[in-house]
């Protein structure tokens, strides 16, 4: 049976519905993006991207629009629905990967999991299998992850600076030999001139990016964007203010890490201590 169209004629897909409501409210007041920005703040290009569905903006922006338009918390409610829409996770990830491919440099903090560009295929398969995917989906995503790793190859590969939490280095695979190969892979990567590892030890304590993975990309147009990921969602952040806040949190962590030489030594020590026989 075909889907019924909404009586209002408006989109029922959360992100499109949010974008459409933004456009209608602005057009009802005969405002240009520049005029709206003059009244509310923020860059006019952000409002353009929000109406095109290219960005959701941040909660502060949406609350300011609700206040300006006198719509109570209507826009914030639509924003929350759009942000929570599971169909948007893949789209945001695709946007991130397109930017990752052209980034001039990358830096990352990964919490308890290794970044996809650092994973062996065995690690990727075991990690992806925990997410409720089918066997074929796990295989396809692992293959795609391995293909992405070509970004780190070659003399012109972009610099990649990674803070490895001790938690990520101790969350081993079930098979001991597979885990040794992952540690060996990290040691091999640490020898590349474009890759720098910094280990964040348990002793560093609590910090501002607990249970969060964040990757910063410096783009050819001079912008820096951030991709923040949890176990169930991901968000590409392009607004300067939120990106700067994440950078401050990252910088605070960086003050507590081991230097590259000590970090490499730490990984080598873990490799020496790793069991040689398969786990039972």
UniProtKB/TrEMBL annotation:
Transmembrane segments: none annotated. This is Helix-turn-helix transcriptional regulator. It holds the Pfam family HTH_31. Gene3D superfamilies: lambda repressor-like DNA-binding domains. Residues 22-75 form the HTH cro/C1-type domain. InterPro entries: Cro/C1-type_HTH (IPR001387), DUF5753 (IPR043917), Lambda_DNA-bd_dom_sf (IPR010982). SUPFAM superfamilies: lambda repressor-like DNA-binding domains.
């Amino acid at each position: 049976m075909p889907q019924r169209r909404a009586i209002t004629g408006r989109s029922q897909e959360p992100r499109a519905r949010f974008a459409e409501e933004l456009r209608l409210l602005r057009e009802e007041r005969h405002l240009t993006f520049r005029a709206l920005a003059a009244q509310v703040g923020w860059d006019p290009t952000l409002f353009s991207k929000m109406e095109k569905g290219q960005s959701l903006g941040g909660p502060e922006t949406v609350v300011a629009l609700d206040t300006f338009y006198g719509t109570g918390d209507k826009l914030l409610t639509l924003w929350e629905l759009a942000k929570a829409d599971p169909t948007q996770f893949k789209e945001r990830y695709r946007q991130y990967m397109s930017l990752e491919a052209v980034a001039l440099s990358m830096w990352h903090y990964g919490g308890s999991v290794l970044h996809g560009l650092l994973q062996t295929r065995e690690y990727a398969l075991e990690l992806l299998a925990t997410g409720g995917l089918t066997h074929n989906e796990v295989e396809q995503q692992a293959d795609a992850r391995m293909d992405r790793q070509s970004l780190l190859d070659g003399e012109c590969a972009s610099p990649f600076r990674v803070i490895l939490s001790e938690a990520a280095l101790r969350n081993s695979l079930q098979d001991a030999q597979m885990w040794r190969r992952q540690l060996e892979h990290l040691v091999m990567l640490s020898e590349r001139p474009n890759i720098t590892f910094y280990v964040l030890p348990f002793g560093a304590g609590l910090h501002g990016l607990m249970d969060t993975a964040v990757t910063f990309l410096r783009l050819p147009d001079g912008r820096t964007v951030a991709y923040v990921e949890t176990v169930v969602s991901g968000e590409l952040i392009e607004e300067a203010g939120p990106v700067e806040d994440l950078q401050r949190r990252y910088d605070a962590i960086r003050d507590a890490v081991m230097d590259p030489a000590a970090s490499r030594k730490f990984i080598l020590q873990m490799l020496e201590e790793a069991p040689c026989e398969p786990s039972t």
